[in-house]
């Protein structure tokens, strides 16, 4: 049996392989889907209208602070926004909104199903915005849950008697805190691993 030996000219060179890879990538690019080009719509002569097109006149808007303040609407708005559980429409009894001037605003909403909300904004420390508000929700047992909140540079905080409360610390925790305070007063110190540092 004859054994064929490969000559150096039969082995593809590195530059030939690079050319083949580039050609493959080029072929992939040609075969890739392209975004659809918009086709020009040509209207028949009888439909086409030749009219001069004028550019719209753009007027510069006055600065926000110079805008006149809108009056606060205090009249009850009779608008259906949702339905009650019984299928009756919910009606807005009161809706007051002041104009927003920078961070300053106020908004009040009261619905006939007992839901109410108020919120207001004011300038906070160092140019930040501070917002406060509350919302009231009737509970199924006739009780009303009220939530008061504030959002400022310290974060968002909510207070309500209806929020879950952490349980009181067990007695052994209070005892450990008392012992630690006595040790601090006596000048006893500990390292980061809880071992006493002898002075």
Explained architecture:
With 199 residues, this protein is α+β, with helices and mostly antiparallel strands. The protein has a domain at 70-159. Helix content is 17%, strand content 28%. The strands form two sheets. It has a seven-stranded antiparallel beta sheet, with no helix packed on it. It has a two-stranded antiparallel sheet with strand order 8-9. A hairpin with a 5-residue loop joins β4 and β5 (129-138).
Based on the model shown, name its key terms:
7-stranded antiparallel β-sheet, flat, two-stranded antiparallel sheet, alpha+beta, 199 residues, 28% strand
Task: Offer a concise description of the structure.
Helices cover 17% and strands 28% of the residues. The chain is an alpha+beta fold and 199 residues long. The strands form two sheets. It has a seven-stranded antiparallel β-sheet, with no helix packed on it. It has a two-stranded antiparallel sheet with strand order 8-9.
Fold blueprint:
Blueprint: H1 14-31, E1 80-83, E2 89-97, E3 105-111, E4 116-123, E5 129-138, E6 144-152, E7 155-159, H2 171-185, E8 189-190, E9 196-197
Antiparallel strand pairs: 1-2, 2-3, 3-4, 4-5, 5-6, 6-7, 8-9
């Amino acid at each position: 049996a004859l054994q064929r030996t490969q000559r150096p000219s039969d082995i593809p060179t590195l530059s030939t392989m690079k050319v083949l890879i580039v050609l493959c990538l080029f072929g992939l690019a040609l075969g890739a889907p392209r975004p659809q080009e918009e086709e020009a719509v040509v209207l028949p002569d009888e439909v086409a209208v030749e009219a001069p097109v004028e550019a719209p006149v753009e007027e510069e808007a006055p600065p926000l602070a110079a805008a006149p303040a809108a009056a606060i609407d205090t009249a009850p708005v009779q608008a259906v926004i949702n339905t009650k559980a019984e299928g009756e429409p919910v009606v807005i009894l009161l809706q007051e909104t002041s104009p927003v001037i920078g961070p300053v605003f106020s908004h009040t909403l009261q619905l006939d199903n007992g839901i109410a909300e108020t919120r207001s904004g004011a300038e906070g420390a160092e140019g930040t915005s501070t917002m406060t508000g509350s919302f009231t929700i009737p509970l199924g047992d006739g009780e009303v849950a009220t939530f008061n909140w504030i959002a400022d540079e310290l974060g968002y905080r909510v207070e309500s008697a209806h929020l879950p409360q952490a349980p009181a610390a067990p007695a052994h925790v209070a005892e450990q805190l008392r012992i630690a305070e006595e040790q601090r007063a006596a000048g006893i110190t500990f390292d980061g691993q809880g071992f006493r540092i002898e002075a």
